[in-house]
């Protein structure tokens, strides 16, 4: 849903000794309810994705994911939730290997309100896992959020790991206000691991404005041999 907000928090141990993560929680702002997405369903109960104990070695990082949904009374009011940028704050509690406890509570976290800006590009279908150096497809939706008609040109810029397949500088044509178009794109990754899909550029030839889109989605890139064994 367009009003849902997904928050990814990366927590890194920058000390010189291991730490035990006792609690990492998101306290939502008054307009949101939060659901933690850091567990998986097992046959008996919901288990943490980090196992029964979360230990961070020096310089190790953990990623926590949360989904915020607007409360019913705010979701029903058109336009209210779109202007809200404060989503909540993180509360982090840990213990050192000597049993000393530490706590950090962030200031209020801000979000980029969806629907703001002239052109919105959102991924629609992205594979979770792809083979190294083998082309794969994604689809994206482009929406004109402005009050004027645009004439769009698509440019595809390669990164150190992501390589786009196709002709850059493609004319997408006119896109009227509040209208959308769907794009099917092909790319490949030359590096294994979790890779960010980046490097799309849209230029409105009417007003000579360019919009850059990076970190559009993430895919896990594995060697073809690993995927065949699975």
UniProtKB/TrEMBL annotation:
Where is each Trafficking protein particle complex subunit 13 middle domain found?
3-113
Q: Name one GO cellular component term.
A: TRAPPIII protein complex
What InterPro entries does the database record attribute to this sequence? TRAPPC13 (IPR010378), TRAPPC13_C (IPR055428), TRAPPC13_M (IPR055429)
| Boundaries of every Trafficking protein particle complex subunit 13 C-terminal domain copy | 127-221
**Listed name of the protein:** TPC13 protein
